[in-house]
Amino acid sequence: MPLDDSRYAGAVTTPSPTRDRLLDAFEALLIEQGEKAATLDAVAARAGVSKGGLLYHFGSKDALVDGQLARMAALATTDVENIRNAPAGPVDYLIRTSVNAGTPLDRAIIAAACLAQGTHPSANEAIAAMRAQWLAVIEEAVGDPDVAEAILLVSDGLYYNSALANPMPAEAHDPHSPESTQQMDRLLAVIAKLLK
Amino acid sequence: MPLDDSRYAGAVTTPSPTRDRLLDAFEALLIEQGEKAATLDAVAARAGVSKGGLLYHFGSKDALVDGQLARMAALATTDVENIRNAPAGPVDYLIRTSVNAGTPLDRAIIAAACLAQGTHPSANEAIAAMRAQWLAVIEEAVGDPDVAEAILLVSDGLYYNSALANPMPAEAHDPHSPESTQQMDRLLAVIAKLLK
DNA sequence: TACACTATACCGTCCAGCCGGTATAGTGAC
DNA sequence: GTCACTATACCGGCTGGACGGTATAGTGTA
Predict the structure, then answer these.
(1) What is this structure's pTM?
(2) What is the rounded end-to-end Cα distance, in angstroms, of chain B?
(3) DSSP tag of B16
């Protein structure tokens, strides 16, 4: 008997490792080869699972999409806390983590952006909800809502640029490289002009 | 005998109206329903042409993509001149036209962004080339390359947000509405802080 | 015995690309 | 001027493959 999807609707029960492997494979295919390549067969193969095994965990492709978005939302919630409590300040943290370092959240967001273009409405909503959380934190930190919006737009620009201009498999441009760090420092210096 | 594509490689000869209608239909489907929905049948139907007619003008789906990107590049080249000679200044023009007003270039860019996610490498290159032109003009206008980059990132953020968060058919948020204009004015006021 | 799968086969649908045909407009020969 | 021929601009049907989803029989572990 297939799993009841509602079992995983929240983060209540312990998810199986296979389930997470399937979501990882789904995201990897979305990121590396686009939505069209992320077929059920391909996802199952990449996760080292049979197609039947995939459909055991996710009864349909829509369920797989929902699972991906739910996992992203969970990761985003903890990320917002990281932003709020960042030692160097929320703005510094937000901008520095906008450049796709290959973290699970980064991958989840880029994958969701792929789904959003496929006009999957729930993907759009999930992304919009995440952005709203970010905006709230930044606004809380900088005071001025217009400045907060501008900073978030820079963050968006960084994200979509690294997502689109980068169909490469791995860390082709490592965010910890000296060039990237210097570039980031200069960008943050420019942004600092906005804060009073 | 099918058309030789090289005939249209430049803007030398007069392109047929059907050819442009096909590209319009292709872009519309990409924007409104995503890459997956932009099938040859759907494009042909939307353009009011048979599938055979489409394949007469574009010998393959790749040729259709190439045609779309080539038209975008042509539009972008004239846009760069508009930016350079804008009465209110390049920065003002760039930011105000980053919000998807439904111009042919706007539509072309959003359609190309859809193609880029499908990991069509030529789409990535075409977008990168366009961005490089923009960056050059803005850098020329503001002097500081870091400030130019930050401004372009805001522009990118605006673009991708309006592209992704907006799978709506038409001008659901008209850029000439009072709210949009006010929001844009406030954003430009924030950006003005970066310029000296 | 139940759970978490594997492996295989199959169905209906959709899609890219191909092919034969058609209608029309134009060109050169006589 | 008209006949033979060519080029352009399509139409619409077909095929082979892929995809989502279903079904079923079987396996190993706890």
Answers:
(1) 0.86
(2) 61
(3) P
